[in-house]
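Deliverable D4.2, example record:
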Amino acid sequence: MNQVYARVIEVLANGNIDLRQIGLELAKAHPLVFLEIASRTARPEWAVKVRHEMATGNKIMAIKLLRAAKNLGLKDAKDIVDCMHEDLYQLSPRGPLPPLGFDRPFLSNDLVTVYHEIMG
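Output generated by the structure prediction step:
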């Protein structure tokens, strides 16, 4: 099985892969598998909106949307948005990539879960 995973990684790393076409083929051939995978990887609508506001530089609106969607206090929502701001900056061409498996010790486990819902 490790050889299969290694081959999959090699194919994906090649860069000539149309993931949308792969998704369509998988959905046609194995619809239940596709739905299971999609349900685990899809972001909720509120998370997409929060991330969009962050991408457009509107931190205040991102905080408002996050508070409304998850019933968070101002400080908790601001802490999450601040983490998002820092990490989105690090992922941009202007900054370094964050280390794999990074952790946010000042966020509670519940807030880390919300963060991952948004950031994927």
